[in-house]
Amino acid sequence: MNFPLSPFSIVKKRSQLFLTAACSAFIMLSSSVAMAQVNVNQSALNNLGDGHKKKSKEASKTHKKEKQTAKKKQKKEDTHKKVTATQNTKPQESTNKPPAVLPTIPPAPPPVPVFKDANIVVPLHPPAPPPMPQIIKEAKGEVHATNKHTLIIFDENSINLNESMLKAVMDFANTLKQHPNATIFLNAYSHGNADDLSTPRRTALNRGLAIRAVLINQGIPSTRIYLLAKGIPETQVQDLSPDHVEMIRSDLADKPKATPNK
Predict the structure, then answer these.
(1) E strands along the chain, which residues?
(2) Where is this region: Disordered (predicted)?
């Protein structure tokens, strides 16, 4: 009577069949013999032997050198010992030296040094005066002198001085010599256009420099002269030309009035 197979028994049989097949395959592979061909290089083997010989020769050479250096060191040490032994056996020289002489102390300190002033002569050169302006006889100009100031009136666009103008400036210089503490103010003016202020100032400056040169050549130091090139006058005076130079002494100038405190 045949019984049906269970699933477990079917799997078991299949695994047994797989194992038997694997074992048979392994036996067949192991039974087959593998053959290999080996070639031997005789020259390479000989070279290996030669290299070993070379290394042994080099090692023997280094060993000999080390022995030689050790012998040289030993000789040096022996000679050094002999030299030190001979030095120690020499008789020591006598160290009996005369005592050092101490310096003597002076009874009094040295005198105080006296420094004399150096006589240095520095030549003093006074500044060179400006050149004296030339007198132009044809130059037009006038002179108006008052108790407080002197006006030198020039021609329009002119900076030249005539004889009368030059004489007035010289007379003013003589009065300054009598008042050494007084200074002089030169207020120079010129006509011009309000759109071009540089031109009248330049003309006024040249006029003031001409009068300043006359004063310096007459012996008035430049430190006492104050030149102001104002150019166009701020206020126009009736019957007075704007082309003029006003000479004012400081001791006669109007002093500012004191305002009372409110």
Answers:
(1) 141-145, 149-154, 184-189, 225-231, 244-249
(2) 45-102
